[in-house]
Amino acid sequence: MRDTGTDDPRVRVRPGRRGSRPRTKIRPDFEDALTGRVFRVDRGRYHVTLVEGTPIVAVKARELGRGSIAVGDLVKVVGDTSGRRDTLARIVTVLPRTSTLRRTAEEGEAAGTERVIVANAEKLLIITALAQPEPRTGMIDRCLVAAYDAGMEPILVLTKADLADPAPLLDHYSNLNLTVLSTSIDETTGQTHGVDAVADAVSGTISVLVGHSGVGKSTLINALVPEAGRATGVVNAVTGRGRHTSSSAIGFTMSGGGIIIDTPGVRSFGLAHVAPDMLLEAFPDLLELAADCPRGCSHAATEPECGLDGASDQTAERVESFRRLLEARHSAEQF
Ligand SMILES: Nc1nc2c(ncn2[C@@H]2O[C@H](COP(=O)(O)OP(=O)(O)OP(=O)(O)O)[C@@H](O)[C@H]2O)c(=O)[nH]1
Ligand SMILES: [Zn+2]
């Protein structure tokens, strides 16, 4: 036996592929690591709730690398997991994700690269005000593409139904088979309406809210999770933006089970990588038509031999919607 310079029984000489250097005694043993979920990321600190309920704060093991942990991630933590004040645990592993919602990095970050906003979420709630601010279908379309790409179910939530008629928007999206819900506030009583249906849709799931500043995301979260205490109606008169400048998502546990995640400050999705065939998966009724497409067909209206052109009347509308979403990937518009 080779002399390893130690008599620690845990050190064994393994003549591995990498040569003769022994794995040393500092190789950590994570057998007693605990599992938890990330609810918030703030300046290098990860707010994790352990499976059994204790909220703790953790840092990340260096080998995990930059941007490797997102809100929603299930992680393994070691070290001080007591959750006591001023204690820090350490995240050593990120468990495999079931979904990833991405945004495009903003200026100052590595431009053009993509960052994970939320991991493991099942539903994307696209929050759109019917007025103040005016709805923008370009934004909704881009959110839909992001949801389909992430493997999440999109749900359109139309807020401020007390201020404008939802019919034109409903019409616009009628052939996407989307779940559309609407909420409103009663002007005289201040009572919120429509939140129960939203609660039913998200209960027991991990759901994410996206939407422009001022559409009513905080109002909705407070209605769903009263103890969240989100500040509402704070829009900067100069910039016209809400108070959120950070782009970190934050999760809240719902009393009926499940997690609702707000995404303050997220203004764009990474869509450049979304392939036409990937998006087509969200339109299963068109797959058969596309089977006749030439290899590598982009399914755009300009493709001379795209099988989608053979659609009959009713399906043709679906093709139109699909192609509109295809286009939305390239629009420069944020969101
Ligand atoms: N009339 C009406 N006003 C609403 C409704 N929902 C929210 N509001 C108001 O719209 C304003 C903005 O709502 P917030 O909940 O702060 O919007 P937000 O999306 O969280 O905005 P940021 O925090 O900037 O991201 C507030 O003054 C709310 O009271 C609604 O259904 N009807
Ligand atoms: Zn095609």
Automatic annotation (TrEMBL):
Ranges of biased composition (kind: Basic and acidic residues): 1-11
Pfam families: RsgA_GTPase
Residues the entry annotates as binding Zn(2+): C293, C297, H299, C306
Organism domain of life: Bacteria
Ranges annotated as biased composition (Basic residues): 12-25
PANTHER family: SMALL RIBOSOMAL SUBUNIT BIOGENESIS GTPASE RSGA, SMALL RIBOSOMAL SUBUNIT BIOGENESIS GTPASE RSGA 1, MITOCHONDRIAL-RELATED
Protein name, per record: Small ribosomal subunit biogenesis GTPase RsgA
Organism per entry: Flaviflexus equikiangi
Originating gene: rsgA
